[in-house]
Design brief:
23% strand
């Protein structure tokens, strides 16, 4: 690094105030509005989500200290994965009214495999409380970067949305025999001149400490400290968080994990499951055998005498006891104790029922007795809590995806990749297919009765039951009418072979 670059960096820094030189924790930065308590909560959610638990310490029968792995149920991860799959899948579709904008967005998202990746990161959003999506330019494409909760820190916010944020990127670099830990903080802020992105780099010898501020050129040669963008109507990111109020910190703009208020229940489930698995392991059969009954063989080799005793060699079931007289001793005694499997399974299922209530899903969604999860038809028939919770999440996901499309178009236009009009949010439609919650038989029966009663046209019934557009339904109707006549009056009512009022119905 030459003196010219150093001078350039100094003058570049003068464009904004030097806010921090040394940081212990990322939340110590004066610009970051997230409390250390909130940041610790997110890191704890990561531990619950990943299933990282410390080993169990215990004393054996002789009083010696031992350690063993903690057995746990992946309840948090299972819940997040299940709900994410109900909210978003590869059948989801994003449409824009403007043809040029629609083609641009679909091309960029398809090239970036967005649909496949979003479902996976939505799981992280539900488990950790939030997810940010930031478009960026890669050659001649606009791609989407997913920023998970531990590295997304709001700077300013209002009651509705996060307007400014810091994005953290950590890098490890080997220098000789030592590891250097770099932390890049990317500040997205609004200023009187427009939208500003400020980059700060920190270096440390300890991975748990952010460290001291260094020049960007030490790790990123082409990265500018300050970038100003004009023509943006919204932040260059969209923040998606879970529905509901953050009751852990009512002033925090961050969302809660779906299991943030169920951690005590998760602890109960894991403790019970660990005890159950340990009891199964310790409950293997044990049989006390008098030592006099052990077969003894003497092998003499010179002056050495080797004593070999055998009793069902190859098994660990039998334990030797010196009982004295074989006639008055304990004899062969089964020491095996019954395993309380039914009691443990009942306790775990009770805990799962409480967990279902706390996260807002239907009763019976999670079971421990080996049965499969409830089907979509069962869920719908009960007017389920799962369906209601899904609708709450879907509305937030749809809004976030619309905002992402606007940001992608604005960024593409700023760098010359996109030349069309910037769409409005109302010009974007997001269809998150809810076929998993739809009872097709009930829906077909409903629209058949509507047509038979004369309350709906045949074309509308085809559109609703087959999820077709107006033009596709028209084509399907003509194909049906060209087939052989129906055999009974019910089919006549459904398939529209009546001669009377045919033209009237088509025009309705």
């Amino acid at each position: 690094m030459g003196i010219v670059q150093t001078i350039k960096d100094i003058f570049t820094r003068s464009k904004y105030a030097m806010t921090a030189q040394n940081l212990t924790n990322i939340t110590d930065h004066p610009k970051i509005a997230v409390s250390s308590t909130e940041y610790d909560r997110i890191r704890e959610n990561v531990r619950y989500f990943s299933g990282r638990y410390p080993q169990v310490e215990y004393r054996d029968s002789n009083g010696n200290k031992n350690k063993r792995d903690f057995n746990h149920l992946p309840v948090g991860r299972t819940a997040a994965k299940k709900i994410a799959s109900l909210v978003f899948n590869e059948q989801a579709e994003i449409k824009l009214d403007d043809e040029q904008a629609d083609k641009f967005i679909k091309t960029q998202l398809q090239n970036d495999r967005f649909t496949k990746n979003f479902e996976r990161y939505l799981e992280s959003c539900l488990a950790l409380g939030g997810l940010a999506m930031r478009p960026y330019v890669d050659d001649d494409r606009v791609r989407v970067s997913f920023i998970q909760a531990p590295v997304f820190l709001p700077l300013q916010s209002n009651t509705q949305d996060v307007s400014s944020a810091a994005i953290v990127t950590k890098t490890i670099k080997a220098e000789g025999n030592k590891q250097r830990y770099y932390t890049l903080i990317e500040f997205h802020e609004w200023s009187k001149d427009g939208y500003t992105i400020t980059n700060e780099l920190y270096k440390s010898d300890n991975q748990n400490i952010v460290g001291s501020r260094v020049l960007l050129s030490e790790l990123y040669e082409d990265l500018e400290e300050v970038v100003e963008l004009n023509g943006l109507s919204r932040p260059l990111f969209t923040y998606l968080k879970t529905p509901g109020m953050n009751n852990k910190d009512i002033n925090s703009p961050l969302g809660l994990s779906i299991f943030d208020n169920a951690k005590t229940t998760i602890d109960f489930l894991n403790t019970t499951y660990d005890e159950f698995m340990w009891e199964v392991k310790m409950g293997q059969r044990r049989v006390a055998v008098p030592s006099q009954m052990i077969k003894t063989e003497y092998n003499q080799d010179g002056d050495n005498v080797v004593v070999k005793r055998e009793f069902e060699a190859g098994y660990n079931v039998y334990e030797q006891f010196d009982s004295g007289d074989i006639d008055k001793g304990i004899g062969i005694t089964d020491l095996t104790t019954p395993i309380r499997s039914d009691d443990y399974i009942k306790a775990i299922n009770k805990g799962l029922s409480l967990f279902e209530m706390q996260i807002g899903v239907s009763s019976g969604t999670f079971t421990f007795d080996g049965k499969s999860l409830k089907t979509a038809t069962e869920v719908v028939s009960e007017n389920s809590d799962t369906y209601q919770m899904r609708n709450s999440i879907v509305s937030l996901v749809e809004q976030s995806l619309k905002e992402l499309c606007v940001s992608m178009c604005e960024l593409g236009k700023a760098v010359g990749i996109y030349s069309g009009e910037i769409p409005e949010l109302d010009d974007i439609s997001v269809n998150l297919d809810d076929g998993v919650f739809t009872d097709r038989h009930a829906e077909l029966d409903y629209w058949s009765k509507m047509v038979a009663a004369g309350f709906s046209t045949k074309k509308r019934a085809i559109m609703k039951t087959l999820n077709l557009s107006d033009a596709e339904a028209e084509k399907e109707l003509k194909a049906i009418n060209s087939e052989l006549p129906p055999m009974n009056d019910a089919e006549l009512a459904i398939y529209g072979m009546h001669n009377q009022n045919e033209e009237v119905e088509e025009n309705v």
